[in-house]
From TrEMBL:
PANTHER family with a match to the protein in the record: ACETYLTRANSFERASE, UDP-N-ACETYLBACILLOSAMINE N-ACETYLTRANSFERASE
Lineage: Bacteria, Pseudomonadati, Pseudomonadota, Gammaproteobacteria, Chromatiales
Matches recorded under InterPro entries: AcTrfase_PglD-like, PglD_N, Trans_hexapeptide_repeat, Trimer_LpxA-like_sf
Coiled-coil segments on the chain, per record: none
Protein name: Acetyltransferase
Length: 224
């Protein structure tokens, strides 16, 4: 018999602030449903003053990666998409595995493709024929309707209503309760890269990249 030691897989939620503490219970349930002991489930936070929170240890990134990286899985639960990208790229370079977390009551219908590292919160519905990039966050009670295409590092705050035939480019942020009007087949409504949609906005037409829109109907936030 070989004396080689087999390490246990380890799992982490990166970020021990508001977003991370909301995601941790989902991570715990997912591991339990997969029959994996959750003794190995920790937070990673690089600035934490506490050693544990809500029953889980908080480690720094350097502490976490001391274990076998090939068996280490990380979900990045930080709302800021630029930070998410920076941390995701570092994890990738360091050979860690991206971890997708999907709440067990999320509804996911036909032909929905999610790229790596997404977080799908409770009461989210993704209907059919949808393409979603990496590290998407769909917060509580959001939905994505049919034939939408969502880029990488997109963030939905709670209660976003994204109707059918909408394209959302990388790093867009959609505020809580925003409603995005449906596009048409072959002529989608497009929310540009890095655009920010204010809380409660009603988006009725395309939004240019890196702009901020608010209100009903949504219009450019004037710079004063
Ligand atoms: N954070 C980190 N490493 C980084 C950047 C951020 O550990 O390189 C942590 C930060 O310390 C904080 C969390 O990520 O605890 C982000 O929390 P914040 O309240 O800003 O946002 P949210 O939880 O809503 O995403």
């Amino acid at each position: 018999m070989s004396g080689e030691k087999i390490s246990m897989p380890q799992y982490a939620v990166y970020g021990a602030s508001g977003c991370g503490r909301g995601v941790m219970p989902l991570a715990r349930t997912q591991l339990r449903n997969e029959g994996i002991l959750n003794d190995n489930l920790v937070f990673i936070d690089d600035n934490a003053e506490l050693h544990d929170i809500n029953g889980h240890k908080i480690l720094s990134y350097e502490e976490f990666i001391k274990a076998d990286r090939t068996r280490s899985h990380i979900a990045i639960a930080i709302a800021d998409s630029k930070i998410r990208q920076r941390l995701a790229e570092r994890c990738c370079i360091d050979g860690l595995n991206p971890w997708t977390i999907i709440a067990d009551n999320a509804v996911i219908m036909d032909d929905v493709r999610l790229d790596e590292g997404c977080i799908i919160c409770p009461f989210v519905t993704l209907t059919s024929n949808i393409r979603i990039g990496k590290y998407f966050h769909a917060n509580l009670y959001s939905y994505v309707e049919h034939d939408c295409v969502i880029g990488d590092y997109v963030t939905f705050a709670p209660g976003v209503k994204c109707n059918g035939n909408v394209v959302i480019e990388d790093h867009a942020y959609i505020g809580a309760g925003a409603i995005i009007k449906q596009g048409r087949p072959g002529d989608p409504l497009v929310i540009g890269r890095g655009a920010v949609i204010g809380m409660g906005a009603v988006v009725t037409k395309d939004v240019r990249p890196r702009t901020i829109v608010v209100g009903n109907p949504a219009s450019l936030l004037s710079k004063e």
